[in-house]
Amino acid sequence: DSAVIFLHGAYARSEGFGHWVETAFGFRFPRTEVVYPQAPEREYTLTGGTSERVWFDRTSLTPGASEKPMVMDIAKVTDEIKAIIAKEVSRGIPLNRIVLGGFSQGAAMALQAGLGDEELAQNLAGVFAMSAFLAEDSALPRKVEYFRTQGMRVPPVLQLHGDSDPRVRLQWAENSAYRLSNAGTPIQFKSYEGLSHDVSLPEMIDVHNFVVSVLAANAAGIN
After folding, report:
1. Is 57 known to be catalytic?
2. Residue-wise pLDDT tens digits, 36-59
3. Is 8 part of the annotated catalytic residue set?
4. Global pTM value
5. Active site includes 165?
6. Active-site residue, selected from the candidate residues 73, 117, 165, 206
7. Collapsed DSSP state (helix, strand, coil) of residue 76
8. How far is CA 2 from its chain centroid?
């Protein structure tokens, strides 16, 4: 009666990522389907223009790199994510019984789609983001602020990050969460001692509990 759309990180294959998450961390639910979409292959600047399985291109893995070159990719993938969600809705799962989340680049994409698209922002049960950050010039906080000033809902967000991540610094994630919170996002941020750019059992337990809680709150009409 509900679903989780879980977006993998850059370079991964959805089948392998899903199998790993389910077998290593027991990420499954009695009545909630977990869907692991596959990122399209595209030229990726960070690898010298080779074809990679990524959600959007990046010119540099730093918050100072402008989001502007990514805008078209983000818009296209948002439409693709909405098409995946529409399939779940066509199977009888209401949009407000769906949680969107991801790891690393998949988490950044989940934030962009789940908070930046008006239909998804007003209806998704929740969004979770693991090991992700926003560009300093990201338009997403402004979109959230606009939705809130118009009296629109945005979904609750759980953002999670390792305090020993050498690839995506904890400060980048904290700054992103701070900006989204200031814009009006109901966001909870959690960090994990000793965790690098990876996934841990305590983190996945928190994601599992978040999914259960937002679906329960949604069913009770309080989300």
Report:
1. no
2. 999 988 889 999 999 999 999 888
3. no
4. 0.95
5. yes
6. 165
7. helix
8. 17
